[in-house]
Amino acid sequence: MFVPAIKGQGTDDQQQKWLPLAYKMQIIGCYAQTELGHGSNVQGLETTATFDPRTDEFVIHSPTLTSSKWWPGGLGKVSTHAVVYARLITDGKDHGVHGFIVQLRSLEDHRPLPGITIGDIGMKFGNGAYNTMDNGVLRFDHVRIPRNQMLMRVSQVTREGKYRQSDVPRQLVYGTMVYVRQQIVADASCALSRAVCIATRYSAIRRQFGSRNGGPETQVIDYKTQQSRLFPLLASAYAFRFVGEWLKWLYTDVTQRLQANDFSTLPEAHACTAGLKSLTTLPLLMELKNVESYVEAMAIFAAVGFQNYLLFVPACTYEGDNTVLLLQTELNTEPKTIIKCDYNSWLLLNVCQTRKVDPVLRGMAEDWLKPGQVLEAFEARAARMSVSCARNLSKFANPEEGLSRNFNKIFLEGVKQQLEALCGIYYLSLLHKHQGDFLATSFLTPKHAALANDQLRALYTKVRPNAIALVDSFNYTDHFLGSILGRYDGNVYPKLYEAAWRDPLNESDIPDGYHEYISPLLKKQLGSARL
Ligand SMILES: Cc1cc2nc3c(=O)[nH]c(=O)nc-3n(C[C@H](O)[C@H](O)[C@H](O)COP(=O)(O)OP(=O)(O)OC[C@H]3O[C@@H](n4cnc5c(N)ncnc54)[C@H](O)[C@@H]3O)c2cc1C
């Protein structure tokens, strides 16, 4: 992400200076945006970059514990430089979050530079899976960098300290994310196809029951139930692969256009990669778990598939939390400038106006083999849900208030009611999960299903105020939970921060392997490939 950030947000001069260094591994960069207290809400970042006109420098500073950079991959032990996102302050005025190239470690001996504190954030879920990545913590104590290390393609600070914005749209800042998200979609297809390949092959080898007259037992892949679980995953693996390829094309196309200062397709690329990243990674995790559940008898899957699952868990969070990305895609809440409201309203109206499904066609079983018809059904469903969502949200002064009121309304009337509500959530969520089957048997009408869903959402609201009390009542000790994030006293940040320093990786500033691997890379003049 270091390289795409400079490519997207750096001026030509900055690109010429920094990109060759990064390509030749003379510097190693990371992308330092997230902070201990601020993730999805990028506008809430606290790190400051204050311009000092006397020296023509920016002073990078972490004013609070929650402003510590937290999570960046490659930061903990390996990186020498970072693109750091910080609030730009000139002449006492806050201009919001901007990117800065900051050197973190000496290129001579790899020690952190004065004013910089860096470490690894510690052990992550799943031994061996994502732990090979040194996700890091970083704090600045009034660290000075030259003015020309602010990424200035979109906005600039002059020698006199004046803040200026060029006519290049601010959306460019998000170009880095477009790149990485399309890569995640490609990775999702790879992870799923890997698991499906193992499961399918093994299902063909594995035989259970059905032996006649002493003959071989039936291959489990021949059971219809096994097929109904396996083949949809196989189809998904292909679908993810194709959509990943399409996104790669989209990104290349957008990049070429950006180089020619054509920003017209950036909003669509942002919306597509944000939505598809969420829509591929989350179902993927569920499907990887499904694969695990129905081939659980085989040891090989425990070794390969579950590892696959663990490796992929973080993809739901990095590069934008999936839920938040979906909300952005649907509601256009952030970044407002990128996914323009009128674009989506146009899309929705267009779908609503053009969806006239022919009832005769719908009645024929074989018509459901026509992709066009299935697509129409999906579009009609999406349009209906969007209109209903828009109607619900229009009851509130702003959409976010609408969403939070739907989920957070306070109502509490004693333990019995709480347990009844939990019981209701249990059976209504099962009904919701399988509502397709209910509709197909005509046991439920769409109106019934919508009413049941309304009830389910109302029950969430009812339970929400007592949710913490309900989990406290399990009476688990902190020792039993073994999780800083789940501490009873909620004292998460200071304890998380302290714990990072107890990680064995932080016993020395210079990581094992620096002299053997990193230093030779940094010091050797590697030639760049000609292609
Ligand atoms: C493995 C890994 C690698 C990472 N690498 C990097 C990196 O290289 N550089 C970097 O800068 N960062 C990195 N990150 C950080 C990552 O970008 C953030 O974790 C991500 O942006 C989410 O932020 P958060 O973890 O603070 O979650 P939060 O934003 O605090 O979200 C917590 C929960 O609240 C929900 N939530 C939040 N806001 C809303 C809302 N408006 N509506 C509804 N629900 C909401 C979310 O869905 C989520 O369930 C990495 C993270 C991981 C896990």
TrEMBL record:
Q: Which residue ranges does the record assign to the Acyl-coenzyme A oxidase N-terminal domain?
A: 1-28
Q: Which domain of life is it from?
A: Eukaryota
Coarsely, its chief localization is other
Cite the Acyl-CoA oxidase/dehydrogenase middle domain residue spans from the record. 30-132
Which cofactor does the UniProt annotation name?
A: FAD
Acyl-CoA oxidase C-alpha1 domain segment(s): 174-329
In the record, what terms sit under GO molecular function? Answer: acyl-CoA oxidase activity; FAD binding; fatty acid binding
GO terms classed as biological process: fatty acid beta-oxidation using acyl-CoA oxidase; lipid homeostasis; long-chain fatty acid metabolic process
Q: Which family does it belong to?
A: Belongs to the acyl-CoA oxidase family.
This protein is called acyl-CoA oxidase
Query: Lineage of the native species?
Result: Eukaryota, Viridiplantae, Streptophyta, Embryophyta, Tracheophyta
